[in-house]
Amino acid sequence: MGMTSASFFSPPRRRTVIFIVVIVALHYLALHWLTSQASRGLPAHEILHETSVALLPDTSAPPPLPPEAAPLPQPSLAPPPLPLLPPLPQASINTEAPPAPVVAAVAEDAPAVQEAASAVVAAAPAEPPAEPAAAPPTEPSPPAEPAAPRYKTSVPASAEFDMQLDRRDADGTKWTGVASMSWKNRGDSYRLNLEAGISMLITRINLLVMNSEGRIDNTGVVPITSTEKRKGRAQTATHFHPDDRTITFSASTASVPWQPGAQDKASVPFQLAAIGRGDVNQLAGNIDILVGEEKNATVFRFKLVGEEELDTRMGKLVTWHLSRPPKPGTYSSQLDIWLAPSLQWYPVQIRNTEANGAVTTQTVTQITVKDTP
Prior knowledge:
6 helices
């Protein structure tokens, strides 16, 4: 049974022939494209990669059209994807000095660099200089008073004093009392006691008790410790440290520089007596004495008022009147002391005038000299 031309070109066979022709045409085009790529000088692996990409079917594309309607494939001209490179190592900060060429380049343009650096320094806040370690905080001391001059002195002998106390209050009320002083000169040391109060029949009520003790040297009376007790108040103490050159107080934390000739309130009259005995001419000018009180120390400046005659129970006494007037900003009271040259310059009258007008006066009624220095 022979094959006829009609059976040979039957639809199935015709499709087969067309398919073979298409395949041959595709191979021809592929070989032609490979030849053209080789003439461009592409590497072999890129040529093979592009060839494989062109020949592999695209599974994501829609189904192929029938052979008779399918367009001829075009060679892909897109470059193949580059292979992935390993990650670059992380850059590290180089803290070393720049290499010589950079330094040389900067050196060549030194004026410009210097000008820019100056501008940066001017704009940047200055770093504060390192401060030395701070000392432990201490309570500030009051400003130092002018240094007291040294006087020629001769301390008077031991004696006991009986005194009359007259008081006039600010409202005009007057009352009287008694006072006593015990002065003991031991040659190189001393002890002083002062009591002032009111006599009540068989007893006495002390309103003020003061004690002072210390050394005696070429500067005169040198207090070491003094105490003060007022009625209704706690006792206070003032400590003098000549070796450490300080004065301290029980009623405050202040520390005042000590000066030669420094006194307490009780010893001041006897230091003035020692100055007058040393050289009377010293009393003609201002006499500055640093006096330690309850909480601080102040320079008392005494001035000679003049020679005065006092009428006392011991008779008329010729005295030298010294006065410390009020000092604004320091003390508001006035202190007056009368010294008797004929009685070893002992203080024979002491008066305190307060800012409110109250006046307290102690006047000697009897002096008992214990010995002669």
